[in-house]
Amino acid sequence: xxxGAPIKALSKGKVKELNGLVEELMQHGFREANTTDELLxxxxxxxxxxxxxxxxxxxxxxxxxxxxxxxxxxxTRWAIEQGCQVENVRIAEQTEYGGLGLESTGxxxxxxxxxxxxxxxxxxxxxxxxxxxxxxxMPGAMMSEQGNIMLALALVMxxxxxxSFWKPYLDLLPDRYTTPLYYSTEDMEELAETxxxxxxxxxxxxxxxxxxxxxxxxxxxxxxxRDCFTYDVFx
Length: 235
What we know:
Elements: H1 12-29, H2 36-56, H3 72-81, E1 85-86, E2 89-94, E3 99-104, E4 115-116, H4 129-137, H5 140-145, H6 148-159, H7 167-170, H8 185-189, H9 197-218, H10 223-226, H11 231-234
Antiparallel strand pairs: 1-4, 2-3
Helix pairs in contact: 1-2, 1-9, 2-9
């Protein structure tokens, strides 16, 4: 979704520039880095390239323009209509945590089931036609080791698909997350003396390399990704 407006195609010059930046990103991402200084330098280089990529790629909106709380009632009605059972809880804003959470609406006895979700409301990648090309193109090793890529791409495809069954759920998702993927390089440097440092760098590098691989080898071959796959949308 992009306010219903057609996505403006990039000029040949911008496409060439973008392809060059993706190639540069991949080169940085596969260079060996071991020491803290080397890892930070690699992260800075990749972040710099990604910033340039983001300035070229179209700005696509992944929300419906309403606050998340405004979408809660619609989502709840949809989920219940689809067979979800909810007892003594509701979705509420948790300002201290910066997001949404569950809040009790009454006493909940021990061992009581408060939410039951039917299998039809599990979001997963199937072998149906709109995912088949994706399944055919994704290398087997990447599929077995990083199945989250397939799930992310399926969500991207559904987010921009007209009249998606999953729209009430997708409308409830935030447009950004409190993960290292959104940290500045200064934020990342502050993690240098913590146990979170290496996992944070590893996450950022993996997502950047996944983006580069998909952009380089797959995007143009999958109709449902051709016009809506960007780094910002993917992360």
